[in-house]
Design a protein that fits this description.
Layout (H helix, E strand, L loop, with lengths): L2 E5 L11 H6 L1 H14 L3 H7 L2 H4 L2 H21 L10 E4 L3 H8 L5 H21 L2 E7 L3 H12 L4 E8 L2 E7 H10 L7 E4 L12 H12 L10 E2 L11 H11 L6 H10 L4 E5 L4 H9 L5 E4 L2 H9 L2
Parallel strand pairs: 1-2, 1-8, 2-7, 8-9
Antiparallel strand pairs: 3-5, 3-6, 4-5
Helix pairs in contact: 2-5, 2-7, 3-5, 5-6, 5-7, 6-7, 7-10, 8-9, 10-11
Length: 313
């Protein structure tokens, strides 16, 4: 049996996340306390109480999702009924890759949390310095999305950057190009084209400033070489081979496409037969239904979901 732990990224956040887990499990509550100490502000309160406008910002959502996912992971690791569930592989969607590296023992909780906080700040700063946006295109394959981008760009930057699942590709670029993509998408056969509530053109060269700032932050963190638990990289759907490759991959991730569907297809081809999504919401569980309808993902996002796993229901 081969087990993979999957971790969500930005967009999975929801006000109240982690509150029930922290109330039911002291180890989870302790991790939120540690997160507050590391960051020097009340992240726990933002997770548990919001407001949504604060939680949904780039700078807050990333450490909030990391801390909530880590708290859920800590419960799974320490509860007698679930402590035997150990992954051979970890993977995370965009920012979730940091949680995947933490789960594989390659970065500490403290360093992981500081890195995602810095990542959020750097991405916001890069977004403020440029004028970018993102649009989710539904119902088109990669070739048709590239044709749409070519027509809508009109000399501006516009490119596909999030290959989430068949029929769902996110494009990223200048605001004007994204607006044209929304208008032109129906002519190309798209079912929907939805402007995303994000600060900028993530995963494009417009985030180059953020990648530079993140490289500096990464150089100050201790990253271990991969061991028994392997971590799959978003940027090439390949396993990280060294600490240096991890640092470079995390920096490149900000200006490179996220190949999530390819990552999951690789794991399925290699025979992974048990998937667990650990973190708020059900984003990755939903994407897997579109990638491979027969594959089930055990979603562990609440205290009740962990209880159901323990009880085998």
């Amino acid at each position: 049996m081969t087990i993979a732990f999957l971790f969500p990224g930005q967009g999975a956040q929801v006000v109240g996340m982690g509150a029930d887990v922290a109330s039911a499990y002291p180890v989870a509550a302790g991790l939120f306390e540690k997160a507050n100490d590391v960051l020097g502000f009340d992240l726990r309160k933002v997770c548990f109480e919001g407001p949504a406008e604060t939680l949904n910002t780039t700078t807050m959502s990333q450490p909030a999702i990391f801390a909530t996912s880590a708290a859920l992971l800590e419960v799974i690791r320490t509860e007698p009924a679930t402590s035997g569930i150990v992954p051979q592989i970890t993977a995370g969607l965009s920012m979730g890759e940091y949680t995947a590296l933490y789960a594989a023992g390659l970065v500490s909780f403290e360093d992981g949390l500081r890195l995602v906080h810095k990542r959020g700040e750097a991405m916001q700063a890069a977004a403020d310095a440029t004028r970018g946006a993102m649009v989710s295109i539904m119902g088109l394959d990669e070739d048709k999305v590239r044709l749409l981008c070519k027509e809508a760009a009109q000399g501006d930057l516009l490119e596909p950057v999030n290959f989430n699942c068949p029929g769902q590709i996110v494009v990223s670029g200048t605001v004007a190009a994204c607006e044209r993509a929304v208008e032109l998408a129906p002519q190309h056969g798209a079912l929907k084209a939805i402007r995303l509530e994000v600060a900028g053109a993530f995963h494009t060269e417009m985030m180059a400033g953020a990648a530079d700032a993140l490289r500096q932050a990464l150089s100050a963190c201790r990253i271990a070489d991969p061991g028994d638990i392997r971590t799959l990289a978003n940027i090439d759907a390949d396993y990280y081979s060294s600490a240096a490759a991890i640092a470079e991959g995390l920096a490149r991730q900000l200006t490179s496409p996220i190949l999530w569907a390819r990552c999951m297809q690789r794991l399925l081809t290699e025979g992974v037969d048990q998937f667990f999504e650990i973190g708020p919401n059900r984003v990755l569980t939903g994407l897997m239904k579109r990638i491979d309808r027969k594959t089930k993902v055990a979603n562990l996002s609440t205290a009740d979901s962990i209880k159901s796993l323990v009880e085998g229901t």
